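Materials and Methods. Structural model of Metalloregulator ArsR/SmtB family transcription factor. The 103-residue sequence of Metalloregulator ArsR/SmtB family transcription factor from Kitasatospora arboriphila was retrieved and submitted for structure prediction as follows.
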Amino acid sequence: MATDVFGALANPVRRALLAALLDGPRPVNDLAGLFDLSRPAVSEHLQLLRQAGLVREEPRGRQRWYHLDAAPLAEVGDWLHPFEHYWRDRLRALSDLLDEERP
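The predicted structure was written out as tokens:
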């Protein structure tokens, strides 16, 4: 069963795991050390991220390394795009109003 990207991103631990992988692949033990959670709990979060297609797992000997796969985040970007326009227009209108108020 595939996990929804938005559902995967709803949890702050999963967002922090993705941020931790921005600089490159990391072993699961390294990732688990970033949190005040058990290794199995972190592994569950990583499994949900893998089901959403946001990370991939690579066995290296006895360790599992995780890699970021940001491609599914394009769906989030597409969804956010109209909101960016909304806020950009609102901020531009506020800036124009403030410019009119200045002497």
